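Sample A.
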Amino acid sequence: MRTLAIVVVAACGSRSHATVIENVEPAGSRAPPCVGRLTGRLVITGVANEPVLATLVASSQHHDELGTEVSITDGDGAFSLRQLGHDTLTIYHDDLLYTGPLPSECKRVTIEIDTSSKVPVSGAARPFRVRHD
């Protein structure tokens, strides 16, 4: 991906000149899958209408410069994350850790987590399931 910006600088009493700034991503890098907002609801598999309070963290294995995007679910499990090219979603809930690929479509989703087998945050991460609403 190539980004090109032209900056025009002018000072009082001087002639304007243009400076070209070019940014080229290294070979093998990939474009972000979605740039927008991912919204949805976090639920516990097999448990209806139980509020799920959790912290969701979007990050990227390929674009460190993006940093992270964090969302805390509300009392109904609803969340909203800006998607800036992140590719990994990590969920922290009740001393449990879930991780997997961040849904790449800019659509409302339901994310299901299974709390039946407790694996503490310090242990191995568990997968989650995504349903597209």
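Sample B, a different protein:
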Amino acid sequence: MARSNKSRGKEKSKRSRAGGSERTATSHSRGDSRDQLVHAAESRRAEVITVGWMLSVFATLIGTVTAGVVAGVARLAGDEAPPLVRMLPGLLILIASISGLVGLLLIYPTYRWRRLAPPPSVTWFAVVVCAAPLVIIAGLMLRL
């Protein structure tokens, strides 16, 4: 009798474990299109290149905007601005242009290695942001 109670307890625990895993499996295997987009298995290489691309775009944006703000402050201060404040916008634009060039160069591998291409609006935003410091440098060189 004691033996049968133990075996019943084992069977019951096996059923409860199996039931829990079945519930988990069914809750994650819905046919939503959102789930399919989330689980579009990208390779590690594609994820790394996409993250690097977006980081370079973000760094370019921050560098360009910061250079514009510092240039505005230096212009408002006029001759009273310290030399570092007058030099900083040029340095920030140089750094932003290097990051922008990297961002422009990473567009091709991002499209090539990803299974699901980035949205076109994101790509065009990245192109505009990454090209902006290069255009600013070209404009400053032509003005001189």
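Observation for Sample B: The chain is about 85% helix and 0% strand.
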